[in-house]
Amino acid sequence: MAQRKGCLIGCGVALVLGVGLLVALVFGMGKVLDIADKTLVDPKVYEAVKTGDAESEVRGKLPSGDTFVKGVLKEGGPAQPEGSACSWYVSSGDTKNGNETVFRFCFKDGKLAEKAEYPMK
C-alpha cells in the first residue's frame, strides 16, 4: 500500500511539473513572437520615408520598443553616422539571396539623417 501511495504522489508531482513546463513553454514562445513583431518593418515603410523627414513622423511608422536582437542586426552594416541615434529592424518582406534584410534608421537633430538596407549577417 505504501508503494502504491508513493507511486501516486510521484505521478502527481510529475504531472504538475509537466503542466508547469508546458505553460512556461507557451508563455516563452509568446514572448519570442512579441519580440519578433517589434523588429519587423514592411519594405513599403522603408521606401516611403525619406532622409530629412521629421523623426517623430518616421518613428510613428516604426514598431515601438527595443529588443535584445539589436546587437545582431548591427553586424555587417555601414558605419553609423556620427552623433546619430539609430534603430534597427528586419524586413517583413522576402529574403534576398537567403538572407534577411536589415533596415537601419538613423536620426539626428529631430530628422531622419540616414536610412540603410543591408543583409543580416
Most strands sheet = 4 strands, mixed
Low-confidence stretches: 23-37
Report the structural category.
alpha+beta
The percent of residues in helical segments reads 40-55%
Distance between the termini: 62 Å
Helix-strand sequence: HEHHHEEE
Q: Count the beta strands.
A: 4
Q: What fraction of the residues are assigned to beta strands by DSSP?
A: 15-25%
Radius of gyration, taken over Cα atoms and rounded to an integer in Å: 23 Å
CA-based shape: elongated
* Annotation field: number of helices: 4
Give the averaged pLDDT, no decimals.
77
Which strands sit side by side, in order, in the main sheet?
1-2-3-4
Short descriptors:
alpha+beta; four-stranded mixed beta sheet; elongated
Q: Would you mind describing this structure in some detail?
A:
Strand 3 and strand 4 (111-119) form a beta hairpin. The chain starts with a helix and ends with a strand. It is built from 4 helices and 4 strands; from the N terminus they run H-E-H-H-H-E-E-E. 43% of the residues lie in helices and 21% in strands. A 4-stranded mixed beta sheet has the order 1-2-3-4. It has helices at residues 2-37, 43-48, 55-59, 70-74, and strands spanning 40-41, 85-91, 101-108, 111-119. By secondary structure, the protein is of the alpha+beta class. It is elongated and about 80 Å long.
